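Input.
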Amino acid sequence: MTLPGPALRAEDVPALCQALADRYRRGADEVVCDLGMLTRPGLSTVDALARMALTSRRHGGRLRLTRTPPTLAALLEQTGLGAVLRELLGQSEEGEPPGGVQEGVEPDDPAL
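Output.
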């Protein structure tokens, strides 16, 4: 799925989420989303990606982003949503286990 550029607008969100939901209903487990055309992302783009991530989660699917422009990555970090979106999208922070993975517990570890 290739997102249109140069930026996403609020009015694009319903159609994008519907297209994504349709793919999951047709049996897709994962949808690859190409962000390469987003050359001027703004807050509407951040909102659209968050809503698409929630749509994926609601349908039990996984959304994988490719060709994320550096300007979009920086915008996600500046808005404080970089870590949130990585978690929603199943991407882990460097050195952290992916979401849903429990670290090992030793039998003599104290309860928290």
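Strands lie at 30-34, 62-66.
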